[in-house]
Design a protein that fits this description.
CATH topology of the largest domain in chain B: Immunoglobulin-like
Radius of gyration of chain A: 19 Å
Order of helices and strands of chain A: EEHHHHHEEHHHHHE
Number of helices of chain A: 10
Number of strands of chain B: 12
CATH class of the largest domain in chain B: Mainly Beta
Strand order of the largest sheet of chain B: 2-12-11-4-7-8
Strand content of chain B: 35-45%
Number of helices of chain B: 6
Number of strands of chain A: 5
Order of helices and strands of chain B: EEEEEEEHHHHEEEEEHH
Distance between the termini of chain A: 36 Å
Radius of gyration of chain B: 24 Å
Helix content of chain B: 25-40%
CATH architecture of the largest domain in chain B: Sandwich
Structural class of chain B: alpha+beta
Low-confidence stretches of chain B: 1-19
Oligomer: heterodimer
Mean pLDDT of chain B: 81
């Protein structure tokens, strides 16, 4: 069934969009990532104009994250204190990120920088997570208790705060910094930032994996709501019809994903996310390295 | 598919404007409005008409060229090149105005039915329909950017050249069908008919097809442009409601 999207001004298959939303929803529920890093490129691929894809993607991710976070709230796996601290940093970061983005835009080459950002971050994070979860799986096979880093440099900083749900008593400086840097990247790359946030929470802040997912989703809701409003008001590129179809697929997927996520071991979950991140990274890197079929590209924008 | 085959022969009234020509076009369209609904899948427009003459049919045969042009928009065309091992956009050209849709249908090969001077004057062929005044100053050999745009849009079905697709009976009755793709931009689609003889335009006629979003499509589009804040809040509300609804529904299923 074809459907004409009023803002994107293209006609696409409704079931294809439902499926896309569903896949992204499953990822969102399983890993606590918004899924923007997969959804946005997929929307480009099926012919949605990039500006509409980025703006509408944010709206869709917000819905699936909200659906996911409700499931986590019931299970009490959301650290509200940590989420709020991260969010404060995140909003500051997205403000900075938008400024950086506009500066890069005025220099041209913004597409390349966005892609390079993706390749570098996805590559580094994916490889780190993959190596770490392999080690964790090997350790648990040997029967040794998983080692948890208790005292790093993070614990020497001032402004300590108790995060009860995470079982942490650490300074607020690292979470705020994590929030700021994720916010900057999120604004530049046009994603919720979950795929950076999740590993940062596990490896930098030492939060338990089960809490990380819910807390990340909690924070993503606000970041994507902010992004959606910004796009709707300034660029008028949010396509509600597209969003609704993606959302219907996405919210169902998120519930399935959350159920799957709860039945799997944390290490398995991490290794899967690591593989996924590496696959997307590889695809983007290939696009940069292989000779494109069409050397020219067109865009409606009148500016650089 | 909302194709209304309403034959609207409204053109007789418009004729006096070109009364100095010996041969004039009398035009009909299968529909002068295209409604874009939520399930729009493209539309076929039937363009037909007749040549009206006061005198006998001249010996040299008449040819017909029909163009349909969607609204023009500025377009940026970028060219990729390999730098330090990766493919990056290196050159860029801004074309002032390129039609979002453009179709040319003729009774024969375009070079034969229309001379290049007439093409230049009336902007009939696809490359002529694209305006690129400032392009030459932005890159060397700016024409390849225009060529690339045409190639890309032709692959998308947005630019059509149908030589010999106009049926022309008895030097009097002509007709052709033009396929409007599903990815249409709203606006007035200028439709022009040229009568040519030995490459020269002897008469022309212009009308337009109105392509509009209707119903929900219209409402959403207008809201996003006129009340962006409200539209944004509505998007957020829909997202939250859908998220909550799905969560509640799944809980109910699990309990039930």
């Amino acid at each position: 069934m074809q459907i004409y999207l009023p803002i994107a001004e293209v006609s696409v298959n409704a079931f294809l969009l439902l499926g896309l939303g569903g896949i992204v929803g499953i990822l969102s529920g399983m890993f606590g990532v918004g899924g923007g890093f997969i959804l946005t490129p997929l929307l480009f691929f099926i012919g949605i104009p990039p500006t509409v894809a980025v703006a509408t993607g944010a709206n869709q991710i917000m819905a699936s994250s909200f659906s996911g976070v409700l499931a986590h709230f019931r299970r009490k796996t959301v650290d509200l204190e940590m989420g709020t601290v991260l969010l404060v940093g995140g909003l500051i970061g997205s403000g900075l990120g938008v400024m950086v983005f506009n500066h890069l835009k005025s220099l041209g080459q913004v597409d390349l920088l966005v892609t390079l950002c993706y390749v570098v971050f996805l590559g580094v994070i994916g490889a780190m997570m993959f190596a770490e979860s392999l080690r964790a799986i090997r350790r648990s096979r040997r029967g040794a208790p998983p080692k948890r880093q208790k005292h790093g440099w993070v614990h020497g900083l001032p402004f300590k705060m108790r995060f009860r749900t995470s079982g942490l008593y650490i300074s607020v400086i690292p979470p705020v910094l994590v929030g700021v840097s994720v916010g900057i990247l999120a604004a530049i790359m046009g994603v919720g930032g979950g795929f950076i946030m999740v590993p940062a929470m596990i490896y930098l802040l030492g939060m338990p994996t089960k809490v990380v997912v819910g807390t990340s989703l909690f924070q993503i809701i606000f970041v994507t709501a902010f992004t959606t409003m910004l796009h709707a008001v300034t660029n008028q590129t949010v396509d509600v019809a597209l969003a609704v179809i993606l959302i219907v697929g996405g919210v169902i997927g998120a519930q399935i994903g959350t159920t799957i996520g709860n039945r799997m071991k944390a290490e398995q979950l991490r290794i899967l996310l690591a593989l996924l991140v590496l696959v997307v990274c590889g695809k983007l890197a290939l696009d940069l390295l292989l000779t494109p079929r069409e050397l020219y590209s067109t865009s409606a924008a009148s500016g650089g | 598919m909302m194709l209304r085959r309403l034959a609207l022969l409204f053109c007789l009234a418009a004729l006096p404007a070109q009364s100095q020509d010996a041969e004039e076009v009398v035009l009909g369209l299968s529909s002068d409005k295209v409604a874009i609904t939520a399930t729009f899948e493209g539309s076929d427009i039937l363009i037909f008409g007749a040549v009206k003459r006061e005198t006998a049919i001249p010996e040299i045969p008449l040819q017909v060229v029909i163009t349909v042009s969607g609204p023009s928009r500025p377009v940026t065309v970028r060219h990729k090149a390999r730098r330090l091992g990766i493919w990056v956009n290196t050159e860029m050209v801004m074309l002032d105005a390129a039609p979002t849709f453009y179709a040319v249908a003729t009774t024969g090969p375009l070079e034969e039915v229309l001379s290049s001077t007439e093409d230049l004057r009336h902007r009939v062929s696809i490359p002529r329909a694209i305006r690129s005044v400032g392009a030459a100053s932005m890159a060397e050999d700016a024409e390849r950017f225009t060529d690339a745009l045409i190639r890309i849009r032709r692959d998308q079905g947005a630019y059509l050249l149908r030589e010999g697709a106009v049926a022309f009976d008895e030097q009097t009755l002509f007709r052709t069908a033009i396929r409007l793709p599903a990815n249409l931009t709203e606006g007035a689609y200028d439709t022009r008919i040229f009568l040519t003889r030995e490459g020269r335009v002897v008469s022309q006629f212009k009308t337009s097809i109105d392509v509009r979003k209707v119903g929900l499509e219209r409402w959403l589009f207008s809201l996003s442009r006129e009340q962006p804040l409200l539209y944004g809040l509505m998007s957020l509300a829909i997202a939250l409601a859908a998220g909550w609804g799905a969560s509640a529904a799944f809980q109910a299923i699990r309990r039930g």
